[in-house]
Design brief:
Elements: E1 14-18, E2 21-25, E3 32-33, E4 37-47, E5 50-56, E6 65-66, E7 69-71, H1 78-90, E8 93-105, E9 110-122, E10 132-138, H2 140-143, H3 150-161, E11 168-169, E12 183-184
Parallel strand pairs: 4-9
Antiparallel strand pairs: 1-2, 2-3, 4-5, 4-7, 5-6, 5-10, 8-9, 11-12
Length: about 180
């Protein structure tokens, strides 16, 4: 989607240089359109040597098996988003352990995807019937015969072969930053 009008005052935007980059900006007020971005999150949940997968019931990726996930809401911390998404999509309760991977995908809407290793807490996989039409825990051997999305295959490989502990939530930062999700190595 291309911005045409100021989100603050409604004036038609014009292109001008801001911070050395051509950007759409409002000639009537201080509004600058910095770009279109989306942030997605995904879960990697292992139980008894098997990973939680869901089958997409809608596009994009309809029919593919993927790790559960979704897009963050404007006022939601991303580690809360992934807990909510996993519960909504397949009825599994899980807690964030650490960040294990990040995908940066520049395009018309610049997408950043953050993958979390999560610890299974409770529940049995039940698809929501809207976004997901099947869900379950699957071994690597079972996945070999499934239509698993390439990105999900890569994420599982990262989770299994990660050379570091990843980023973990800093639950007691030296300087509290209310409303921020802070992660550290």
């Amino acid at each position: 989607m291309d911005a045409k009008f100021c989100m603050s005052c409604g004036t038609a935007l014009e292109v001008r240089e801001v911070d050395g980059v051509s950007r759409k900006a409002c000639p009537a007020c201080s509004f600058v359109h910095w770009g279109n971005y989306s942030v997605g999150v995904g879960a990697l949940i292992e139980r008894d040597g098997k990973f939680l997968l869901v089958r997409r019931a809608m596009e994009p990726g309809k029919g593919n098996w993927t790790n559960p996930g979704g897009y963050i809401e404007q006022t939601e911390l991303m580690h809360n988003t992934i807990k909510r998404e996993v519960l909504e999509e397949c009825g599994i309760r899980a807690e964030v352990k650490r960040i294990v991977a990040v995908r940066d995908q520049p395009r018309s809407i610049h997408n950043v995807y953050v993958a979390f290793a999560m610890e299974y807490v409770s529940g049995e996989p039940v698809p929501d019937g809207v976004e997901v039409d099947a869900a379950g825990f699957y071994s690597l051997e079972q996945m070999a015969d499934m239509k698993v999305a390439g990105f999900t295959k890569w994420l599982i490989d990262v989770a299994l072969k990660g050379e570091t502990r990843g980023l973990s939530e800093d639950e007691d930062p030296i300087v509290p930053m209310e409303g921020s999700g802070l992660f550290r190595v």
